[in-house]
């Protein structure tokens, strides 16, 4: 029923057995399968707990990229009402990797931005696997400027392996588009909250994550380069991704300790893909809490955000 | 005199006889393969006279060539956290830092100088590619911020010479955080109405382009510099296509609207000072001389 990861094999075996027994029970075989099923279910939950309480950074990378993991669009449809997507950068085109527009969050009008990876072949191609081109970042700037003008808080959902590296993207100024988008986040006078829901891939992520509050899901990652990229550049050996994932300190837990993120949103046992509804709900609550804090702080939110980033790394 | 006494020694022998000369006196132009005498190169700011190829130069040389009379005040770099992740790949990061410091005589990849260019006072912030590829970590980020904040305090324009392979991988997420951090300092300078000029030199890639290097009021590129977000190798691997001729070079960027002008190193002082005089409503260079 799930796409299992390598290290989930003990769980996969147990769940396969359970499924088999259930089928047997449905076929009305003259054996009592209920007791065996509940015994196996308990064992499989225990196995899942054992695996997930000791996830290595490299395993977390795989959970963060899990194909069944809820993506931006899942959060949008569950957490927001009245979502009105806005399209285009008014200069070149529309980029489906960057989703954005206006919506209501628990009744209050807000602006939203997020990278969508897609969930099947057709939608993955449409959304370019969540890798944004310059048009997407320029659209994000447009939406942020709109939010600032109409005093709407900005909420962004970050999930990208990185900005798209292609000829067209370079020709149209990928770097400049990212820099402007980061600058737009930092210049907002309204509250901005970012949630890293899967992968926070380098410049492609920070472009919409220079927020007053940066939240991250329990098994999400955030890094200056993918572990594969780091292995190839620093170790000159692509098989060293595990070591890179560990050394680079890219897990939510490491990032909280280093002062890069402000809070971790817990995921259900077995990762977000085993309880999408619960994790989306928890994300909504976390956003609501941060939003209220910021709206009642009485601070100049632009200065608060700028000073917060200037403080990062000054004492580690 | 017969043909035997008139014999001319083959040139090859005279070359073999001069083996004791240190090999760095002659520098090879990577473009034409031509050998150029080091004194001639230095006098020409490391621009190869025949081919016009711009060689990489150190931050100290850059400041010396840029400021009037080679005179400037060096800003001391702020103290910064070193090795925040206690990182090691094949080598300890601390050892890499120590080696880079010994090799370059710099404490990290960025140097700030304050001085005058054709009479225009300004702050110059320079990245040194020879220090771990000019990569951007906490110390380099702090130095860039210091340059920008000094310009803001002293109400001076800032000229930034970018030269960097991108992020300092060994500092992981802290390296990425230098993008928003330096952006804050750039934005504050611009909001104060002070000019911010970026000179893109060979090479400027990765996270550096995705922040302060692409946020200038004016972008100037040295000829033939590699400038881009993703490196050519990464792009080739992603799209599995051959890249077009001159891709990600200064002239290509100018054609695509990303830089305002491609300017020879030898012309930079003149171009930048004229530009700043316009932006700051200072008299043109000739008028200044007449008034004096």
From TrEMBL, chain A:
GO MF assignments: acetyl-CoA carboxylase activity
InterPro entries: Acetyl_CoA_COase_a_su, ClpP/crotonase-like_dom_sf, COA_CT_C
Keyword set, alphabetical order: ATP-binding, Cytoplasm, Fatty acid biosynthesis, Fatty acid metabolism, Ligase, Lipid biosynthesis, Lipid metabolism, Nucleotide-binding, Transferase
Pathway participation: Lipid metabolism; malonyl-CoA biosynthesis; malonyl-CoA from acetyl-CoA: step 1/1
EC id: 2.1.3.15
Domain CoA carboxyltransferase C-terminal: 40-293
Superkingdom of origin: Bacteria
A matching Pfam family: ACCA
Entry annotated with the keyword Lipid biosynthesis: yes
UniProt key word ATP-binding: yes
Reactions catalysed according to its record: N(6)-carboxybiotinyl-L-lysyl-[protein] + acetyl-CoA = N(6)-biotinyl-L-lysyl-[protein] + malonyl-CoA
NCBIfam families: accA, AccA_sub, PRK05724.1
HAMAP family: AcetylCoA_CT_alpha (MF_00823)
Family under the similarity heading: Belongs to the AccA family.
Function: Component of the acetyl coenzyme A carboxylase (ACC) complex. First, biotin carboxylase catalyzes the carboxylation of biotin on its carrier protein (BCCP) and then the CO(2) group is transferred by the carboxyltransferase to acetyl-CoA to form malonyl-CoA.
UniProt xrefs under PANTHER family: ACETYL-COENZYME A CARBOXYLASE CARBOXYL TRANSFERASE SUBUNIT ALPHA, ACETYL-COENZYME A CARBOXYLASE CARBOXYL TRANSFERASE SUBUNIT ALPHA, CHLOROPLASTIC
Subunit structure: Acetyl-CoA carboxylase is a heterohexamer composed of biotin carboxyl carrier protein (AccB), biotin carboxylase (AccC) and two subunits each of ACCase subunit alpha (AccA) and ACCase subunit beta (AccD).
Protein name per Swiss-Prot or TrEMBL: Acetyl-coenzyme A carboxylase carboxyl transferase subunit alpha
Originating gene: accA
UniProtKB/TrEMBL annotation, chain B:
Pfam families reported for this sequence: Carboxyl_trans
Transmembrane segments: none
Pathway the protein acts in: Lipid metabolism; malonyl-CoA biosynthesis; malonyl-CoA from acetyl-CoA: step 1/1
Predominant location: cytoplasm
EC number annotated for this UniProt entry: 2.1.3.15
Annotated ranges, domain CoA carboxyltransferase N-terminal: 25-292
Taxonomic superkingdom: Bacteria
Compartments where found: Cytoplasm
A GO molecular function held by the record: acetyl-CoA carboxylase activity
Top-level enzyme category: transferase
Catalysed transformations (reactions): N(6)-carboxybiotinyl-L-lysyl-[protein] + acetyl-CoA = N(6)-biotinyl-L-lysyl-[protein] + malonyl-CoA
Keyword terms: ATP-binding, Cytoplasm, Fatty acid biosynthesis, Fatty acid metabolism, Ligase, Lipid biosynthesis, Lipid metabolism, Nucleotide-binding, Transferase
Stretches of the chain forming a coiled coil according to its record: none
Family: Belongs to the AccD/PCCB family.
Quaternary structure and partners: Acetyl-CoA carboxylase is a heterohexamer composed of biotin carboxyl carrier protein (AccB), biotin carboxylase (AccC) and two subunits each of ACCase subunit alpha (AccA) and ACCase subunit beta (AccD).
HAMAP family for the chain: AcetylCoA_CT_beta
Main function: Component of the acetyl coenzyme A carboxylase (ACC) complex. Biotin carboxylase (BC) catalyzes the carboxylation of biotin on its carrier protein (BCCP) and then the CO(2) group is transferred by the transcarboxylase to acetyl-CoA to form malonyl-CoA.
Protein name stated in the entry: Acetyl-coenzyme A carboxylase carboxyl transferase subunit beta
Naturally occurring in which organism (per UniProt): Mesorhizobium liriopis
This protein's encoding gene: accD
């Amino acid at each position: 029923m799930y796409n299992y990861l390598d290290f989930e094999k003990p769980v996969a075996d147990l769940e396969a057995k359970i499924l088999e027994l259930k089928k047997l029970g449905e076929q009305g075989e003259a054996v009592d399968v209920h007791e065996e099923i509940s015994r196996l279910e308990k064992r499989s939950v225990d196995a899942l707990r054992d695996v997930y309480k000791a996830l290595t950074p490299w395993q977390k990378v795989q959970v963060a990229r899990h194909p069944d993991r809820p993506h931006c669009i899942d959060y949008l449809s569950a957490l927001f009402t009245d979502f009105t997507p806005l399209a285009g950068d008014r200069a070149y085109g529309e980029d489906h990797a960057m989703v954005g527009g206006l919506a209501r969050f628990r009744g209050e009008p807000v602006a939203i931005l997020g990278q969508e990876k897609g969930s099947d072949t057709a939608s993955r191609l449409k959304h370019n696997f969540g890798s944004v081109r310059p048009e997407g970042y320029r659209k994000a700037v447009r939406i942020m400027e709109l939010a600032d003008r109409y005093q709407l808080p900005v909420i962004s959902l970050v999930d990208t392996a990185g900005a798209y590296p292609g000829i067209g993207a370079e020709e149209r100024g990928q770097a400049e588009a990212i820099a402007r988008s980061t600058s737009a986040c930092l210049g907002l006078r309204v509250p901005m909250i970012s949630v890293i829901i899967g992968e926070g891939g380098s410049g492609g992520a920070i472009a919409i994550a220079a927020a007053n509050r940066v939240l991250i899901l329990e098994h999400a990652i955030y890094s200056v380069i993918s572990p594969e990229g780091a292995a190839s550049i620093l170790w000159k050996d692509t098989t060293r991704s595990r070591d890179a994932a560990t050394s680079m300190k890219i897990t939510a837990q490491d990032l909280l300790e280093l002062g890069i993120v402000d809070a971790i949103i817990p995921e259900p046992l077995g990762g977000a893909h085993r309880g999408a509804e619960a994790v989306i709900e928890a994300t909504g609550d976390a956003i609501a809490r941060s939003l209220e804090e910021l709206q009642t702080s009485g601070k100049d939110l632009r200065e608060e955000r700028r000073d917060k980033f200037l403080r990062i790394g000054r004492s580690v | 005199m017969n043909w035997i006494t008139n014999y001319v020694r083959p040139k090859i022998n005279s070359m073999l006889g001069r083996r004791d000369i240190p090999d760095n006196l002659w520098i090879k132009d990577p473009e034409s393969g031509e050998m150029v005498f080091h004194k001639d190169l230095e006098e020409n700011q490391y621009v190869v006279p025949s081919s016009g190829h711009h060689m990489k130069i150190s931050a100290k040389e850059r400041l010396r060539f840029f400021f009037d009379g080679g005179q400037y005040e060096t800003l001391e770099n702020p103290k910064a956290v070193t090795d925040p992740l206690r990182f090691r790949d094949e080598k300890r990061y601390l050892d890499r830092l120590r080696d880079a410091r010994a090799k370059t005589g710099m404490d990290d990849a960025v140097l700030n100088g304050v001085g005058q260019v054709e009479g225009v006072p300004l702050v110059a912030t320079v990245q040194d590619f020879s220090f771990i590829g000019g990569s951007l970590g906490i110390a380099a980020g702090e130095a860039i911020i210091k340059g920008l904040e000094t310009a803001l305090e002293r109400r001076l324009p800032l000229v930034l010479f970018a030269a960097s392979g991108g992020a300092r991988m060994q500092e992981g997420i802290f390296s990425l955080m230098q993008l928003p951090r330096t952006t804050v300092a750039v934005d504050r300078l611009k909001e104060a109405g002070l000019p911010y000029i970026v000179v893109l030199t060979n090479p400027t890639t990765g996270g550096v382009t995705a922040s302060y290097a692409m946020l200038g009021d004016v972008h100037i590129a040295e000829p033939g510099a590699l400038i881009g977000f993703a490196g050519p190798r990464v792009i080739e691997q992603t799209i599995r296509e051959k890249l077009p001729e001159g891709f990600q070079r200064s002239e290509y960027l100018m054609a695509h609207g990303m830089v305002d002008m491609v300017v020879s190193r030898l012309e930079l002082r003149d171009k930048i000072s004229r530009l700043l005089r316009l932006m700051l409503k200072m008299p043109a260079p000739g008028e200044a001389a007449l008034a004096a």
